[in-house]
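Good morning C.,

I know you're traveling, so I'll keep this short. The sequence:
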Amino acid sequence: MELYHKIFKMNPDLTVYLDNPEPLVADCDEMLNHLTGARSMDELHEEKIAVLRDFYSVCSFDIKDADFPEPIGHFDSENEKTALIRKKILLQDTVQYLGRVYKKYHIFLYNKNGTLPIIQLDNCMIDYNEIYIRAMEDYVNSIINKKRHVIIASFALPSLIERGLGMNLQNRMLFKSIYRLLNMQELKRPLDDQEDKYIKIFLSNKDNNVLFNAKESYVMGKMYALFVSEEVLEPSMDNEMILTGVGHNKGRRLDRTLGALIKSDFAKKEILSEYMKIIDIIFCKLNIRNCIMHGLGETFDYLNIGIVAIMFQLLWDVAACEIFID
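The tokens, ready to paste straight into the viewer:
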């Protein structure tokens, strides 16, 4: 990977482009070769981590070193203007580097396999699998026809990532707490019939979608209360939110949203730091979801295929549990 002085310039319509992209393109091709040359799933995982680390190195360097056009408009302070420039450089690097690598990697996968990865996102009423297939078909169509935009996928992927991340974090908290409970020498009180029944159902259906004739908040609320009372789970609004869907604290409530999941202490402990950083960049620092949904950011194309490539790769890695520490 080569860190070099990048020169960004502005078009008449205020969009920004990289005037000297050649070294970046060469670096992306090198990282692509590492991904496509992986000989095992473990090696591929390590190469994915390496891509993310290189991306962070590029961003850190460019934010301090790159030439960027003077933004137009009023700023209350020099710090405000500097923060905007740094955010725009981060956005450019995210799409130009990470988006380019992932897009080329996905083209390689499609040409090799004739399809892209299929994942399962089970739910009771909303068929997230159908949403995923529609998004993937849209992405494949854009790849084949060399389109700049992936409209359906752009709007669908943030919700799919939220669903996948929420399910995985909930399952990890649930089963870690259950196993801690089972490893205890003696409980403070015997399990009641419902608690015993729920735990047996969970343990016998670890790989399947479990349906109950009750609200999630009731079933998981019972589990949360049990785990807290037996001291196998810390009582907190974050933990209650992840497990039951809604956290409570002194009249306040915290719904299980993508933002709440990302900011939770449990997510920070469970997710590899390299993945935590890209999730934070995409959905917090760059606020990609709101920019897509509400049309924010008039001078950048948030339906860009590079952003979609990043979100697809993130979704696949969430579904495969590659983002987690263990």
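Safe travels,
E.
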